[in-house]
Every structure is written in C-alpha cells, then in structure tokens.
Design brief:
Layout: H1 3-17, E1 21-24, H2 35-50, E2 54-57, H3 70-78, H4 97-107, H5 118-121, H6 123-130, H7 134-150, H8 158-163, H9 168-174
Helix pairs in contact: 2-3, 4-7, 6-7
Length: 183
Amino acid sequence: MTQTQITEAVCHTYTQAGVQLVMIDEIHRLNPRTTTGAQTADLLKDLSERLPATFVYAGINVTDTPLFTGVRGAQLAGRATLVDCGPLPARHGPRQPFRDVITDIENHLDLQQHKPGTLPRHAPYLHQRTAGRIGSLTRLIRQAAITAISDGTERITKTTLDTIRLDHLAETHHRPHTRARSR
C-alpha cells in the first residue's frame, strides 16, 4: 500500500469505530528534521486534519527537542496546546490523587500474602521517594512485587520498598547529594 492508501484506511477505520481520542506517547523522540521524522510529522498532521478526534501527544521536555522547530515543527506547534504536567501532587484540595493511583496499582497486584491497603498507608513515603512521578512509582512497586515473588514472601512491605533502587532522577530527589562545606 502507498502512504496515501494507508492514511485512507486508517481514517476510514478510525471514523467507522468512532475513535474520539488518539494518544501518542514518546513524542519527544520525533525529530521533524530527519526524513523519517518529517514523514511521521506529515502523517500526524494529515490524520489530525482528517479525523474527528482529539489528539494528545505526550512527551518529556518537548520544548527542549527539535519537535517544534523548522517548517514542520512550526506546523505541529501551530496545532498544539502545550500542557506542562509536573509530578502528581500528593493532595489536590480534599482529593489525594497520588494515594488513589497507589490504590489502583495495589488492587492489580497478584501477591498471595499482600494485605490490601498496605501501600496507600505509605503514600507520603512513596510520594517523597518518587517525587510524585508515576513512572518511578510503578517501577518501584513492580520491582518490589518481583522481589516479593522471588523471596517467597508474596507481600510488599516498607522494608522491601526501601531496598529497591530507582531511576536516577528519583534517587537524586530522594537522597540528594550533600555539598562539601567551603573552608
């Protein structure tokens, strides 16, 4: 199939299925200055013009990438509203969105000896440990679950969580390096 035929087929299928939301992750990796990146940017532009759907592009530090530079980048930038999403807050008014995420993750664990409610009780610790980053949180809980399965305990405890090393950003936030004092 040609690119035009593929685009037609995708648009037809998405329209017939009633797709209203298209989410594209890792958009920061798109470089419209390369041949492949330019073709991808053109395809995204064509799809966003032809589909009756909202397009959400997710990425890290997109303003520091070539994504919105050059002619194609300017076209993308002209069609996008940038929403800066920081870490998930521990509290938002009376709500506790970080604790809610922890509860949802815990509800999907399949550990035989894990007591429901254990992880949400550690929400302040988990928020501080991960700096509110969901990626760091999911890696921490996933690794703790793997450890619990491997060691046969089949449950996650704070002690287990303490033993897990996280990504550099979370570790730097959790255990900042102290500067040597000037003499």
